[in-house]
Write a structure and sequence with these properties.
By secondary structure, this protein is α/β, with parallel strands linked by helices. The protein contains 16 helices and nine strands. The chain has a single domain, classed as Rossmann fold, CATH 3.40.50. This is Hydrolase.
């Protein structure tokens, strides 16, 4: 088995950039629906006036080459694990005592999600950001069966090849499940796990988590309200879980379809701001561009299908590996509902941020990771 790692630089062919521009210019837009002119009204999904603004900026105002140069400032490698090409950002700290730290992202994230976080962590950590199979430059997929547990095993192998016997892990979204699986399967190697989430995780109460004892009727109603809100946003999840091959061609052939599918997920819960008022517009479009150029819109959805049909336990955190949670855009019932036994040693809550704290609460997340991991070895 070839265990080498190969330095990697991004160099998207100009023909791909030209093709993207032409496709955006030739978008066949739906007929506008009378009464749907408010660019901030996401009640039926991403509003067309707002989507048109983003598409026009992507076509005429966004500079991929400038963003590509910024991404290439981060050292990157590829390696082949279990027949699958795996891409990873690998930024070594100048500090010889630095702790290796794996940052695990989910969908529709990418290593771009952590771009601003890396320099804030580089004094204390050797930072590794793998792309799951089917995401970013970990494409194309080598075959079926790349569910989160197998992905966690691939990450452990990547860390071995980079020379790290032990390491800590941070994750958000499905990346938090990968982080937990790493700890559960390699408790001798994982120093600690840190996960980030936001108040919508309360929707898992009554499903993945039991309702805690002693809640009042009003408190149950508050959780049910979050559950109902999240249920309205589950369309993409059901499609990924059960019919990724149906949505895949649209996400590969139409940049505006991909843009709508991804950017809607950056609409912060209960926030009047548009996604690009919550996170940096060009960073947002850099992530979408990465999905477009690598055709990962289709292949990344497969991770959900594989996970849904694998029977794995996404919450298989190791009882012996220290765990920390950071809850952004928090809810008053967050810890009472999710950790009523106070079993999680490090628990932080923030009013700011949302589902992508590495992008919209970068300093808070960096400080919380450092605080939790300080002094561990």
């Amino acid at each position: 088995m070839d265990t080498t790692t190969t330095p990697f630089r991004i160099d998207i062919p100009q023909a791909d950039l030209d093709d993207l521009h032409d496709r955006l210019a030739g978008t066949r837009w739906p007929h506008p629906v009378p009464g749907r002119s408010d660019r901030r009204d996401f009640s039926r999904g991403i509003p067309q006036p707002y989507l048109r603004e983003l598409a026009e900026h992507w076509r005429d105002g966004f500079d991929w080459r400038a963003q590509e140069a910024r991404l290439n400032a981060l050292d990157q490698v590829t390696t082949v694990v279990d027949g699958q090409t795996v891409h990873a950002v690998h930024v070594r700290s100048a500090n010889p005592q630095a702790m290796p730290l794996v940052l695990c992202h989910g969908w529709p994230g990418s290593f771009v999600e952590y771009q601003a976080l890396v320099p804030l962590l580089a004094d204390d950590f050797h930072v590794v950001i793998p792309s799951p199979p089917g995401f970013g430059f970990s494409t194309p997929l080598s075959g079926t069966g790349w569910e989160p547990a197998r992905t966690a095993e691939a990450y452990a192998e990547v860390m071995t090849r980079l020379g790290y016997a032990r390491f800590s892990v941070h994750g958000s979204d499905i990346g938090s499940g990968i982080a937990g699986l790493l700890a559960a399967r390699h408790p001798d190697r994982v120093i600690a796990t840190h996960v980030a989430c936001e108040q919508r995780i309360l929707a898992m109460v009554g499903d993945k988590f039991p309702f805690p004892d002693g809640l009042s009727d009003d408190e149950v109603a508050q959780i049910d309200h979050v559950r109902a809100t999240v249920a309205a946003d589950r369309g993409y999840l059901e499609m990924h879980n059960h019919r990724p091959d149906t949505i895949g061609p649209a996400l590969t052939d139409s940049p505006v379809a991909l843009l709508a599918w991804v950017v809607e997920k950056f609409k912060a819960h209960g926030d009047a701001r548009t996604p690009d008022e919550t996170v940096d517009r060009d960073q947002l479009l850099t992530g979408v561009s990465l999905y477009w150029f690598t055709r990962a819109g289709a292949s990344s959805a497969q991770l959900y299908y594989e996970g849904e049909h694998s029977g794995i336990d996404y919450f298989a955190f190791s009882p012996t590996v220290p765990a920390g949670w950071a809850v952004f855009d928090t809810h008053p019932l967050a810890r009472r509902a999710l950790d009523p036994w106070r079993a999680i040693g490090h628990w932080s809550e923030f009013a700011e941020g949302g589902h992508f704290p590495a992008m919209d609460a970068t300093d808070l997340l960096a400080d919380d990771i450092r605080t939790f991991l300080r002094g561990r070895s």
